Amino acid sequence: MHYGGDYNPEQWDESVWPEDMRRMREAGVTRVRVGVFAWARIQPEEGVFDWAWLDRVLDLLHENGIQASLATATATPPPWATTNYPEMLPQDDLGSTLWHGSRQAYAPSSPVYRRLASELVTALVERYAQHPAVGMWVANNEYGCHLNYDYSDNAAVAFREWLKKKYGTLDALNEAWGTMFWSQRYTSFDQIVPMRRAPYSLNPGGLLDFKRFTSDTLLELFVMERDIIKSAGASQPVTTNFMGFFPPADYWKWAPELDVICDDNYADPNDPESFRGAAFTRDLMRSLKKDVPWVLLEQAPNDVNWRPTNAPKAPGQMAALSMQAVARGADEINFFQWRQSRRGSERFHSGMLPHAGTNTRTWREITALGETLKNLPGLGTSASGARIAIAFDWEARWALDAPDHPGEIDYGVLIPRWHAALHRQQLLVDLVHPAEDLSDYDLVIAPHLYLLSDESAENLSGFVRAGGNLLVAAFSDVVDDTDSFREGGFQVALRDVLGVAVEEFGALVPPEAAIGGTSAGDTTGSASASRGPGEAHADVDGPFGAARGEFFAERLQVLDPSVEILGRFSSGRLAGEPALTANRAGEGRAWYLATIPDDDGMRRVTGWAAAEAGIAPVLEVPNDMVEVSCRGDVLTIINYGSEPARFAVTGTEVSSGERVSSVDLDQYDWIMLDQAR
Ligand code: GAL
Predict the structure, then answer these.
(1) 211/162 Cα distance (integer angstroms)
(2) How many domains does the chain have?
(3) 173 in a domain, yes or no?
(4) For residue range 528-541, what is the model confidence (pLDDT) as tens digits?
(5) Taking the model in full, what pTM does it have?
(6) Does ligand 1 come within 6 angstroms of the Cβ of 336?
(7) d(CA 582, CA 562)
């Protein structure tokens, strides 16, 4: 179990470094990331490298028994680079240049940027591949973070090449994008621009490909650096830091290229529910590389500086969130950054060693956590033992995020909400790509899988036929992977297993708008008020009781008399129509829910489906602010709520070896119990 943070010693006079080492040892630090923003310090001008300081830093770390995760520093080209080569600067969607003076000022497709970055990485790895302090390589930093999309001329050239490779011919591209409509037909690849802002909606197929291209381009940068590092003979793992359910990068596609998954997570201390979102991203990180423990590369020791209100973490909150990561598969806990900056943009961001010194709550909590992690036995596997999986696809998110649908739904919010529904019930869950092997699971939930490739549809159907339980929820299987309807209406690819098809989507006014009173026909706020067009929700009566449906109330066509109607809409324009259907296909069952439930509805629906699939909560706990996770045989229980939680549970406390038959947890208290000992 490693413990540490970003060490940026170039900000400080060298006389401070020995104190850094002493304090790091005191805090139990075992590994730090070095050099993440140090390009300008390492290479003061083109062709000139200054290694002496970095040699001393790495030697010092080694002498103190601390490893370095050596960063490649390529996320921050220095001003000399962008001044000498302004063509490497990125552009926004109106073609305006984004200048240097902050960080990440480069166009990912720029050949000049790639050359300069390669030269830097080559020089770094030649110098340090064999350095005994180096335990890991971290390429760049949070690829795509500030610059989600680049629309520069470099992007235009690269996008055209990407499209040529994908489609071969312009005819194929024109067909896939449906460019005969609105006179968008291209007669040369050179006419294609990287989806810059236009007077009105951009072509959906083009937008989707531009997002694929962007994710692939960023991944190409990682692979470029990784290959340089590996081919120089470095034997350490090579990685980069992810950002949870980050929209622009399809981490399903990225994960196999990394030796180990790293994530950055900044749960909002002001939000009492932010631990739930953190649980989602931690489950995602574990799921991206199952059975390989992952690394929490960044979190805040206390407050951040970039929200409108930057509340400090409550006492114990930092440790609770750190242990949540360990419980969900992490073997390394780090922070941004070691010593709080005195100058620059992040001077108000907390550090492990605060500006106010060591007589501080932050320092005491940092050293206490170091001690805790040091005393933790190896946990081995990261496997959760989950029998439930939520299937989601970044491509579905990209397609849904484009305009011009019957209603606006935010997949980036809804997928974590489905996860939260299970999390509230202590039902363990993994995340999966819909085309991956599902044989470990008894229940797969596929919510709002709007874009569904043939491969994913076959995989999900195969899962059902082989005996699995599949729950598909509204606005799924709507389009193919070009964002076009399949022939034969809506919802074609899963039709055989679901036994139903959608006739109309029946958009409902989104809940936020309805709360604001803009929902036509509903000024009463009453669920049962009769509504005309513009209604806000459609209640459902089902085996899970009553649930409120939002966003869509789809009119279904039941295609086979053997399809069971388990639930019906009980209000709204579809009152009496099927809302939840069940079909048997092969050895398994497929349910279709024709709306998107609210939070309580999601909890009921998922709880019911789990019970149907024979899956029980991992532990009965007093309330849903108490979280339980499994890592192999180790159960971690954390109480995030203000109510103390006292209840019976047996196991052996992992650090002390004491047998336990009940727990008594105040807010942010946690306990790890080995259930096999
Ligand atoms: C991350 C970034 C770090 C630091 C941190 C602040 O996105 O990688 O360098 O800026 O945010 O919370």
Answers:
(1) 12
(2) 2
(3) no
(4) 444 456 899 999 99
(5) 0.96
(6) yes
(7) 9
